Amino acid sequence: MSDVSPPTPAEAARTAVVIPAAGRGVRLGPGAPKALRTLNGVPMLIHAVRAMAASRAVGLVVVVAPPDGTAEVKSLLDTHALPDRTDFVVVSGGETRQESVRAGLDALPPEYGIVLVHDAARPLVPVDTVDAVIEAVREGAVAVVPALPLADTVKEVEPAAAPGDPEPVLATPERARLRAVQTPQGFDRATLVRAHETVTGAVTDDAGMVERLGEPVVAVPGHEEAFKVTRPLDLVLAEAVLARRRLNDGF
Predict the structure, then answer these.
(1) pLDDT in tens, 142-184
(2) Collapsed DSSP state (helix, strand, coil) of residue 161
(3) Which helix (H) or strand (E) holds 235?
(4) What CATH number did the domain enclosing 201 receive?
(5) Is CB count within 10 Å lower at the N or C end of the chain?
(6) Torsion 163-169-170-175 (CA) sign
(7) Is-contact 198 208, C-beta < 8 A?
(8) What is the pTM of this model?
(9) CA distance 184 to 143
(10) Count of domains in the chain?
């Protein structure tokens, strides 16, 4: 029998965020790690941290930094204005995203029963999306993803033997049943920890790991501004979003 007491209702509702930011972002080209590229003069990571801390439900943000960049990330957090009501911790990441998320989970104090995992490369997610994910977990979902309907028709293909070769189309999935998944993804902490202790092999997101446990995952509405900054054109779009926010909201 475990000696660990179950969390109180208040503890079970407390929310922490893990932001894995240890990747190099090769698709954006050489230079600084993707999370440290700037938007409007501010690193994307800081935008992402602010987006999570904008939710009054978030009490702790754990940033998982590149092993050789922990001091730099700590300095960034110290030199940018962040909400006083939220605590911030920086830990060293691993070779893979899964290892980095696990490092973030290991750094969480026991009193946090809800965990969000957020991509540092999604710097502009609105606070309403963050709150919707948290609320769905509070209402009993063990795993929640924000998601958007697809605008394009999707084809399943047989991958080409060589880059640039034609790819045979195998099927056309029903678009109405498909969603593009974003972050932050929200979890009951115990379920997410069990997924990281159990699931091995290639995974593209933490919700997929929970699916492999056989646990249900639900989707809530995502937002078009929660896109992932992956390629140089995405940086242009992100700058345009920030410019519009400054014009409309004084952001």
Answers:
(1) 999 999 999 999 999 999 989 989 999 999 999 999 999 999 9
(2) coil
(3) helix 232-249
(4) 3.90.550.10
(5) N
(6) positive
(7) no
(8) 0.89
(9) 11
(10) 1
In a domain, 225, yes or no: yes
Note the Cα 135 to chain centre separation in Å.
Answer: 17
The answer to whether residue 14 is domain-embedded is: yes
Domain that holds residue 38: 9-147+179-249
Q: What is the pLDDT of residues 122-141, one digit of tens each?
A: 999 999 999 999 999 999 99
Can you tell me the mean pLDDT for 31-55? 85
Question: Residue 57 carries which side chain, given as an amino acid letter?
Answer: A
DSSP for 88-132, please give it: EEEEE--SSHHHHHHHHHHTS-TT--EEEE--TT-TT--HHHHHH
Backbone angles phi, psi at 205, to 5 degrees: -155, 165
Residue 198 maps to a domain: yes
Question: Containing H/E element for 16?
Answer: strand 15-20
